[in-house]
Amino acid sequence: xxxxxxxxxxxxCMWYELKKGLFGKMGYVRAVDGVSFDLKRGxxxxxxxxxxxxxxxLGKTILALYRPTSGLLKFEDKDVTNLDSKGLMWYxxxxxxxxxxxxxxxxxxxxxxxxxxxxxxxxxxxxxxERAKRVYEALxxxxxxxxxxxxxxxxxxxxxxxxxxxxxxRAIILNPKLIIADEPISMLDASVxxxxxxxxxxxxxxxxxxxxxxxxxxSTTRYFSEWIYIMYAGKIVEMxxxxxxxxxxxxxxxxxxxxxxPDPDPKNRFILRETPPGEPPxxxxxxxGCRFHTRCPHVIKGLCDEKDPPExxxxxAHLVKCWLYV
Amino acid sequence: xxxxxxxxxxxxxxxSTRKGPVKAVDGVSFKIDNGxTLALIGxxxxxxxxxxxxIIRLLPRNIDTYKGRIYFDGEDLMNLSEEEFRRSxxxxxxxxxxxxxxNSLNPVIKISQQVAEPLIIHDKINKETALKKxxxxxxxxxxxxxxxxxxxxxxxxxxxxxxVIAMSLIMNPDLVILDEPTSALDVLTQANIMNLLxxxxxxxxxxxxxxxxxxxxxxELADKVAVMYAGQIIELGDAxxxxxxxxxxxxxxxxxxxxxxxxxxxxxxxxxIPPxxxxxxxGCRFAPRCPYRFKRCIKDPPLTxxxxxxxxxxWLHVVEDR
Lengths: 326, 322
Description:
The structure holds two protein chains of two kinds.
Chain A: E1 5-20, E2 24-40, E3 44-48, H1 55-62, E4 70-75, E5 78-79, H2 85-93, E6 95-98, H3 102-105, H4 112-122, H5 128-141, H6 148-151, H7 160-172, E7 178-182, H8 190-207, E8 210-215, H9 218-224, E9 227-232, E10 235-241, H10 242-247, H11 252-260, E11 311-315, E12 318-321
Parallel strand pairs in A: 3-8, 3-9, 6-7, 7-8
Antiparallel strand pairs in A: 1-2, 1-4, 4-5, 9-10, 10-12, 11-12
Helix pairs in contact in A: 4-5, 5-7, 7-8
Chain B: E1 4-15, E2 22-33, E3 37-41, H1 48-56, E4 63-72, E5 75-76, H2 82-88, E6 94-97, H3 111-123, H4 127-140, H5 145-148, H6 157-169, E7 175-179, H7 187-204, E8 207-212, H8 215-218, E9 224-229, E10 232-238, H9 239-244, H10 249-256, E11 304-307, E12 310-312
Parallel strand pairs in B: 3-8, 3-9, 6-7, 7-8
Antiparallel strand pairs in B: 1-2, 1-4, 4-5, 9-10, 10-12, 11-12
Helix pairs in contact in B: 3-4, 3-6, 4-6, 6-7
């Protein structure tokens, strides 16, 4: 394994237990089911999928908010799959988390200064002057200037875009190596979205951060990530460079997603978009074989509905999980 | 030639709050022809949903000002009493697919009965006929018969959205207001709903007011586009010319901030935040954020016709005094 791999997942599974009554088990929801990837230091990857595809669960599993059901997760070549509380303390300091809803992510009764100090206090930075300095620096990094105007404010006094900047400041204040951004712009308005993404990009380049950008919106990926992983029903079905994927998608699901995403064009109103029939499968009882076969226009009877497709490298560094390319 | 269906003239809707009136809709005028779709785009808090509420007269209690003219098929709706409006216009002529439509279904009534309800109440027709019509409407929006006798929680988000659309069509209205109809849905489901809306507007010769903050999505339906900013329409024009060459600095910046899938471009963002609607800036409301601002901008620019069916509220496009 090359040295600059920061995070690596092997056959990672995160299944939620379904309970019946107090003691009975009914089965599992296979939210993340056999995911493998290597994320390099300093690279941004977009994790794209529809709601219920398991992208947020994967993010939270990486953050060690969930314990994986099986599989292996390595961070800087250390096994972080099952950490004890001391290990967790270390591991989580390496990560930053940017939530979807900034207002929900910020405690309403804390001032911005207090919100940003919290991770420092937890990580035993006792000197108040040192803490104040780091809060100041973090706010400057996210361009909430002049800083004095913001430190004393409370979350409700800020606009959505400014709140999200505070969330970003909190995520980077401990100098993490990996940022997980779960739909960081979906609650924001069009005119501020680009500002937030540009900021994330700038921070990533400045600090050589790795970023996992979880989104359902393909159109933003071209500008903010080198790599893209397409997730469907708990599995990564296609992974490659972003530009390559947008130019020549292979997996039928990726093609469907691209085809369904509009660009502003007055000709759109005269066309009907082709979409696969049906809906994503229930992950408590996923279909046999390829999980997309129930909706796929190119389904091969006797193969796709029987056996799980292997990962095929169709070009250099372009992996597709589909029987069509075997 | 198509004829004018809806004409809004100088519409105002202010809400009273403790801090003073919120000028949600502040002198808005536009026209929609039969069978035409107007896309109303703008950021949250610009007044686009309030404009929808003002047209269909679904108003909260804290109204400060509600005035202007709304001509529908030549009749001024503002002259109608609440009771007349309810009987003859709302749902019968103008219906709405509300924002968060997914939560606007009653959880304890079966889908087919909810869709039939407006017919039973409005037209006083018997239940069997109403249910039969509801079934037709549900089939039209692509809900298979097996799903009609289910409760809302048994349907997926896309199906529920289809049911709400069926409900808005049940009285054969001429105008349907779509308030962010797909904002909670996935990309593929969204594409399906857009396909459906394109089909039914052709089949039924419907007019839509399509409210959205998603500029790429707006082009899926728009024949005409109106951009709202701080309670005012700042640009109005046909889709072809708007998407290729927006004129108002705000529209230009907004278009430049839209990430595109198929072409590479440099994305821009608009510094600053939209103004408060309680105390909007004097003069042009976009001036504090506008890169082209000059001395005339301290006065409020009029909505000026700058070409065939194109209107802009910006001093850059007003010729100096004659």
